[in-house]
UniProtKB/TrEMBL annotation:
<protein>
    <submittedName>
        <fullName>Uncharacterized protein</fullName>
    </submittedName>
</protein>
Amino acid sequence: YLYLIIDRNADTRMQKSKVEMDKILSSW
């Protein structure tokens, strides 16, 4: 159960960083 919460948290963090990367790439 706890693992699922951590996994979801990591997933959202991954998506957030991906969005940041897309922003950086699009600004180039």
